[in-house]
Design a protein that fits this description.
Layout: H1 35-70, H2 87-96, E1 100-108, E2 111-119, E3 125-129, H3 130-133, E4 141-144, E5 150-159, E6 164-168, E7 179-180, E8 191-196, E9 204-219, E10 222-229, E11 241-244, E12 248-256, E13 268-272, H4 273-287
Parallel strand pairs: 7-12
Antiparallel strand pairs: 1-2, 1-4, 2-3, 3-6, 4-5, 5-6, 8-9, 8-11, 9-10, 10-13, 11-12, 12-13
């Protein structure tokens, strides 16, 4: 059975900003913070969480009493089980999903490295992450289109330092190229969608906000500045687009920060699209 491995592995503390790793490596557990300090912070976090639960319980009871008191009155607001979905995000998802593909690479030993990618022009060039393509060690790359078709992809070129690779599929793929956000247009706090194939689930869309810009992170042995987001990013999302409410790509999803090897904890990183576009244009110019 194929092993899903989209983000390489759900990689851990080395993706956290160096600015946050104030304590240096821990020879005992290797998580960059003394055990005693972590324990103290966990106790504080637990106390805070209990306080939040208590506050939520009280506020929920008060809100419930108010809603009950309004029941049956003309013009009373209708109770809603969930917040409404902003229509601009629905429109953005509709624009983006047709241009996003799943990337599958034979990683050997019966396993398949999976990731995502997106079309950037009418020539059917696709941007993805180098660490996905690199898992194949030169083996064939297959792309699955949004309508479920599978076709071979040519690796036009790749750049390990920026973690960007460019693929090309046949014209009959008919992928919709995605619009790219203008440099400097992305703002902290604006809503974004992460689109891709986490755990092989093609066409998955998750929502969040831009948490930070120009976040210094360590990706492997290199340091980069990234767009930080709390949109859920999991193995298989790598190489997929992070898009704004206008359906414009603001970054290429590439990594997550984890705790003790767990999955997404709401801290994900994307390569800024202006950097990715510059690298991709260079690759396409050299490779065709």
């Amino acid at each position: 059975m194929a092993v899903q491995s989209g983000l390489g592995e759900p990689r851990g503390p080395w993706f956290v900003s160096p600015d946050l790793d104030r304590y240096g490596p821990d020879p005992v557990e290797g998580h960059g913070m003394p055990v005693a300090t972590r324990a103290t912070r966990w106790r504080r976090a637990l106390v805070f969480a209990l306080a939040v639960v208590a506050l939520s319980t009280v506020s929920g009871a008060l809100a419930g009493g108010y809603v009950a008191s309004q029941g049956g009155k003309p013009g009373a607001p209708a109770a809603s089980a969930a917040a409404p979905i902003p229509p601009d995000l629905v429109t953005a998802a509709g624009k983006v999903v047709p241009g996003v593909v799943s990337v599958l690479v034979d990683a050997g030993n019966g396993s398949t490295a999976t990731g995502s990618g997106f079309a950037v022009d009418n020539l059917q060039h696709i941007i993805t992450n180098d660490h996905i393509v690199a898992r194949g060690n030169g083996s064939a790359v297959v792309v699955e289109t949004p309508d479920g078709r599978r076709m071979p992809a040519v690796v036009v070129g790749h750049d390990p330092n920026s973690d960007i690779a460019v693929l090309k599929v046949p014209p009959e793929a008919h992928l919709n190229p995605l619009a790219l956000a203008k440099p400097g247009a992305t703002r902290v706090g604006e809503p974004v969608l992460a689109v891709g194939s986490p755990l092989g689930l093609a066409g998955t869309v998750t929502a969040g906000i831009v948490s930070a810009l120009d976040r210094p992170v360590r990706l492997g042995t290199s340091r980069h500045t990234a767009v930080q987001t709390d949109a859920s990013i999991n193995p298989g999302n790598s190489g997929g687009p992070l898009v704004n409410a206008r359906g414009e790509v603001v970054g290429v999803n590439t990594a997550i920060a984890t705790l003790d090897g767990s999955g997404s904890i709401g801290i994900g990183f994307a390569i800024p699209i202006d950097q990715a576009q510059q690298v991709a244009d260079g690759i396409i110019g050299k490779g065709g």
